[in-house]
Every structure is written in structure tokens, then in C-alpha cells.
Amino acid sequence: MSLTVIGHMNPDTDSIVSAIAVADLLSKRGMAAQPAAQGKPTPETEFVLKKFGLSAPAVTDDVAGKKLWLVDYSDIAQAPKGLAEAEILGIVDHHKLGDVTTPNPLEVWTWPVGCTGSVIKAMYDFYGVEMPKGIAGGLLCAILSDTVMFKSPTCTDLDKKAVDALAKIAGVSDVMALGMEMFKVKSAVEGASMKDLVFRDYKDFDMGGKKVGIGQLEVVDLSILNPVKDGLYAEITKVKSEGRHSVFLLLTDIMKEGSEMLIVSDDPAVVEKAFGVKAEGRSVWLDGVMSRKKQVVPNFEKAFK
Ligand code: MN
Ligand code: MN
Question: 59 CA to middle of ligand 1, Å?
Fold first, then answer.
């Protein structure tokens, strides 16, 4: 039976391109594999796939009975339905180790770097497999996206080295221009529903026994979001009412390097406890905060304890 390689819920560019890349690498190692995704590509990912001639993976929401490789997560909460009836054979990731377990040995590549794409570059090198040009371009964009063009505190030297090597393979001469082009696509809000925008990059967490949702929108200029801010607030209020203690939405300005966080919570004081700044009304400006994973989730985890 062929292997299925699948990224996390509400898939981002890293989740989708990494699934394509790992399926290619496994197939070339003699293990037939197909990429899959838990949803359609975002406009950013569509731009990347089109630019580098890659096809969107099939959308799968039930993996019962399948043999799996997970990319860009190892948390059960981020997995598709049927995981308990599936067999996990490998994980490639760059987040904290999650809570999946397996009855059998498996191949795990999880490194503290800025993007799964950087780990995958090292995997191709390790196995001596030549990377196709399109996949190199896709992984390059995944790294630029996850590291916010190297500005995120999650970015490491290894990510920068991977970008240099991938740019050569993909034939990209101006990496930063490509990054800006991609982030301009990501910034566009026209035509998207409030629900689409809130869930574009959204994760639920268990924090001290409470269900907490954290979404993030990254734009090249926060003023782009002025016309939709009220709608976004109404939408996260609705999401919170569906059984959550809190929902936070980070509106990240990648040029100013900080985030405005919209807050809906049973206990708004948790924000001051987590970040040491008092919220004014429904939001707070968090200077220098760009990474949910490194700067937001750990602070909230402490504050919710
Ligand atoms: Mn991701
Ligand atoms: Mn990632």
C-alpha cells in the first residue's frame, strides 16, 4: 500500500509543499508515496504552487487504515480524523514534540529550525537524492513564509543556508523580491470571508485544561486590515462561543515587526500576565512579536498554568 504524506489542519505553504517534497523523496527511495492535505491551499500557497509548477495535493479528511508520514506537526489535535486507525511511519517537523505515539519504530526528523522545508533539504542531501527544481522553489517559499523572510526569531542559520542552496536549484536570483511578491499575495483580503481569514492560519491549543484558539494573519502593512477588523473581531467572538475559553488573533505587520492581537477571553487579564502589557479594549500591540510558536504560545502556556 502506498504511503500518504500529510501536513497539519488549516494547511499553510510549509505543510503543503513539505508533503509534496517528502512524497517525492520517499518515492525515489523506493516507497511509493502520495502527498495529501487537510484542506485547499491558501492564496499564498496557490501562488507558490503556480509559480513553481506544482499541483495541489488531494484533500483528505480521514486517514483510517492508511500508512502515514506527518509533516510540519506531531500533535494529535492537528491531525486528521482516523489517526488512531492509521500507521505512522515517519515524522518531519520543526515544532515542539507532540503527543502522537506508535507501536512500531519510525523515522523521525524533527529539528529546532524555522521551517520543515529546511529539514527536508537536509534529508535529500542525506539520501543523495537530486531535488526537482519545482520542489526546490516551493520549499524555498515555505522557508521564506515560515521565517517571515528571516525576521522571525524562529529563523536559524540552517534556514538561511537552505534558502541559498534551494535558490540555486530553483534558479531564483532575487530571493527577497520573491518573498515580497509572496507576502503581497498573502496580505490581500479582498474576496475572502471573515471565517476564511480567521482560519487561514489558526490552531487550537489545550492550555491548563482550557481550549484556546490562536490565529495569525501576516500582512506587509497593518492598514490593509482596517476595513475588516470589526468583522474579524465578530468572527473570533463567534469562534470563542463554540466552547473555547479564549480566542486570540494576531495581526502581524511584517515590516513594522510586531503584532496587534485581537482578544476575546473569559479572562482577558491573562494577556497582561503573558506579555506584561495591558490590553486597551479589545486589542493590544505587541512590539517585536512575530512568531506564534516561539513568542505567543509559550507565554500563554505559562500564564494559563
Ligand atoms: Mn505550518
Ligand atoms: Mn512549518
Answer: 16
> Tell me, what's the pLDDT at 262?
98
* Whether the predicted pLDDT of 187 surpasses 80: yes
* 35 within a domain of the structure (yes/no): yes
Range of the domain at 178: 3-184
d(CA 87, ligand 1 centre) in Å: 22
Number of residues assigned to the chain = 305
> Are 284 and 212 contained in the same domain?
yes
Ligand 1 centroid from CA 281, angstroms: 30
Q: Which of the four pLDDT bands, split at 50, 70 and 90, describes residue 101?
A: very high
If you measure from the C-alpha of residue 274 to the centroid of ligand 1, how many angstroms do you get, rounded to a whole number? 23
In a shared domain, residues 22 and 149: yes
Average pLDDT over residues 248-254: 97
Tell me, yes or no, whether 109 lies in a domain. Answer: yes
What pLDDT, on the 0 to 100 scale, is given for residue 92?
A: 98
Please report, for the domain that includes residue 36, its CATH number. 3.90.1640.10
Backbone angles phi, psi at 215, to 5 degrees: -110, 165
**54 confidence band (pLDDT: 50, 70, 90):** very high
Give the ligand whose atoms come closest to the C-alpha of residue 143.
2
